[in-house]
Specification:
This protein is mainly α. The chain is built from 14 helices and no strands.
Amino acid sequence: MKTSDQEVQKLKKLFTALKKGGEKPKKPSHCDFIETLVFAILSENATEAAARAAIKKIQSHFVDFNDLRVARIEETVEIIGHDIQEPGKCAARLIALLNAIFQKYDCLSPEDLTNAGKKNTRELLEKFSGMTDFVRAYIMMMVLNAHVVPLTEKMTQYLKTFGVISPDADSIQAETFIEKHISAAEVHTFYAVIRHDSDLASPKAAQILADDKAKSAAQKKNKPKK
């Protein structure tokens, strides 16, 4: 995927504006691997507020995540509720991934996985059936402090809509582009502010990048015809 200087400028302008004046998002000092996995699956196609509410219900209803692992899909759907998009599919993925991890490591606290190093952990995560780019990247960022940026489909579409990434970029290409221009120290803040703005009915990006859009349109209009 070819990127332009204009896209890089938009990326930096948007990020600078969104984080200015606001309280810097705090990354937890320690993240439990399985809890992070469950939250990532819940939040991939729902708001983070809905995911937080759903995980609280899970923790109140089930003894632990191992209890969730052996639960029926119908029971899990009833617990997580319909604020989670396609709750049946979400519940099935939750249970399938928890079982895949348990079958490989015979537990849900796999030190062999989290201590394998960032590159090896990424490769191991990608092999689990049902794992998505977002869930993998979210775990890598939150648990291993890796230099990665998780992107939901909604976040990717938001960045395309405002011309920050190429319209034909897939999730991996978008992730790679952002990681190239956002430092490791800033990826959590970037994820937090972009995620928040993409969830708004009226994203601030529309105003922040309005001048760029108008300028681009004017340049195209004034471009001499061959």
